Amino acid sequence: MQQLARVGEDIAYAENLLRAGEVIAIPTETVYGLAGNALDENAVVKIFEIKNRPLFNPLIVHTYALEAIAGLVAPLTAPAKALADAFWPGPLTLLVPKREGLSDLLTAGHPSVAIRIPQHPMTLDLLKRLDFPLAAPSANPFGYISPTTSRHVQEQLGDLIPYILDGGPCTIGLESTIVSLLKGSKPQVLRLGGISLEDIEAVVGPVELIRNAGRPEAPGMLSSHYAPRTPLKILPDNFSWEYADTAHVAYLGYQTLSSRIPAERQVLLSPTGDLREAAKNLFLALHLLDKLAVKEIWAELLPEIGLGRAINDRLRRAAVK
Ligand code: TXA
Ligand code: MG
To answer: Residue 321 C-alpha to ligand 2 middle, in angstroms?
Structure first.
């Protein structure tokens, strides 16, 4: 086993490792990414290996500016451009037709590629120094909770990578919203994320939300995902605590603690009912609760609006076994 990754803020060091074909962890505003040279098949293979990710699940290409990847993707259509102008840099991923030069490994054989300009000053600086874009899935083992701190990465993949570029806790805390503008005129949202459906629709009009799961077009949307090791159960709306056996249970609530479980086994996502704060806390909370010696984590769903929808999506996927 390799020793644990170095953790630091040394952008030049990160740059050198990436230039040498290494795979490292980088901070973004959504979650930490496991990054390598998107144009180097060996680096891309390493990403799949480290994550233990099935090869049918394609990767997102990160850049600091569209011009930097102009030769690799088709020019943006008008609605894609409108979304890019509204939300980049930021938690939006667009599916666009790819050109030669991007390997099938990267896109899992799809004729389209997912691209994103992340909003993190260190990672934007790093991308500007490089003469290639970075392929980066979330820096967690396949199927497990996404990392929102360098410590999460260290705990999950620290023995498999040389360096974690530490940019502090992620400010959004949920993965990017993925929008496809490939099919017909109506945009499709393939993954709910850091930008709400309402905000997307304000820019491009009505979108279609593709709910499921394991289909070839959206292989990463497997129904079981983002899951803690402890089984997670979602409480029904009309749940009655009265006769519930809470002896070995931890609770993930939105605003209000349960009177039936000791406080040290509970986490609230946002006592003031702020969905942004809840999004930022979600994966942190799941990591924390997963470390308690309990048999089950019980979770409450949030209001099905704005970022609440993306949070509920993650909770439902975490609950599938
Ligand atoms: O916020 C994020 O998007 C983070 C940070 C690191 O940027 N990245 C991330 O990557 O969440 P990952 O690999 O965990 O999720 C990428 C999703 C997967 O569900 C994958 O199937 C989908 O994007 N995807 C990527 N390329 C695609 C393509 N060409 N067609 C369809 N889906 C694609
Ligand atoms: Mg992921």
So the answer is: 17
Residue 37 CB–ligand 1 contact under 6 Å: no
Does the pTM surpass 0.90? The reply is yes
Which residues place a Cβ less than 5 A from the ion ligand 2?
138
Strands 249-253 and 266-268, by their bridges, are parallel
Measure the CA angle with vertex 28, ends 24 and 30; round to 5°: 125
CA of 261 relative to ligand 2 center, distance in Å: 31
Q: Is the CB of 177 under 6 A from ligand 1?
A: no
Query: Could you read off the pLDDT tens digit of each residue along the chain, which spans 321 residues?
Result: 568 999 999 999 999 999 999 999 999 999 999 999 999 999 999 999 999 999 999 999 999 999 999 999 999 999 999 999 999 999 999 999 999 889 999 999 999 999 999 999 999 999 999 999 999 999 999 999 999 999 999 999 999 999 999 999 999 999 999 999 886 668 999 999 999 999 999 999 999 998 764 444 444 455 667 789 999 999 999 999 999 999 999 999 999 999 999 999 999 999 999 999 999 999 999 999 999 999 999 999 999 999 999 999 999 999 986
Helix and strand numbers, DSSP H then E, in the chain: 9, 15
